[in-house]
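Late entry, written up from scratch paper. The run itself happened at the end of the previous shift, but nothing got recorded in the book at the time, so transcribing now.
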Amino acid sequence: MFIAKNTTTMAYVDANSANVIDKYECPGCGEPVYLKKGNIKIAHYAHQQFGQCHVSTEGESATHLQGKLALFQYFNDKYDEVKLEPWLSEIRQRPDLMVRKGTTWTVIEFQCAPITIERIRERMAGYRQLQMQVVWILGEAYQKKRIQSSTMAKFATLHRKELKIFFWHTQEGIYYKAWWQIDHRKPVNRHKKVDNQVQQLFKIQQAIIQARPQVCTIQKQLYAQNRNVVGIPWICHPAYSLPGGLKIPQWQVTVRIIMLLEHKPITIDEMYQQLFAQEWHEFGCLKLADVQKLWLDCFLNDAIRLKKIKFINGRFQLAGNVSWFDNYHDKLKAFQENR
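Output as recorded:
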């Protein structure tokens, strides 16, 4: 903690300016804090009985303290105003930083240690009361191994029509990765075709051979219609990277949408009903409905641009007949012939 309240003057004092003979209290819980200031450690305050304060989101490790200071300096060069650990009395919360560009304030939460999704949602509920934008930035501990989808869902932010996760690195500064970039495990440009539909087909073939549970449900549905999973139309293999957020492979949703469209033109609400029925990750910073809307917007925009789906009189319909295939080889041959 870098900011505490002087118990005599009631002024907020940063740790660097604090006097060791004065007494201070936590702006959140009101409990006494003591000043830790020396030649080696970064000057900061610590609770005398840590664990009773519900405002603190994590233990103030050296990495977390250093990161907050580094971010403070980083934003100072880029924003009109930066506040370190401001106390928001209306919601009794203390974000790590707040930055202002013009009249718009954005909350910055810097996360180094594990945190539950419930705690993230609690903090986000408070910020929503104040109608504040929030960005969670992950420290280097989250960058040492491949980040899991469930973790991405905790911290994902909607930024320029993409799900993004922001990171802080001492050398690189702030950078972000879109969900689909992390999911692909290698750099992919959303504005160009993925060109990995054959790889998608191969993965489906592997899943069937290995009898993976993730394909069993849809496999049974298709068998009942004398169809098979590997033979789904090529339109069901996204030509562009979709935003992410699903627990199941994205082709399982696209094929269900195409099957609806085969029967009749459908409204956007009918498509949403199909989306709501699928398995999605639990999101911490975002509302699931916003994630689902983004996903569907991207899918439909790409399909319309590729002239696979068209929008007429308030309903979506297929732009032409779609081909189902009997086996892997016939489907692959059709793809190669149409390239």
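The mean pLDDT is 86.
(Scratch paper discarded after transcription.)
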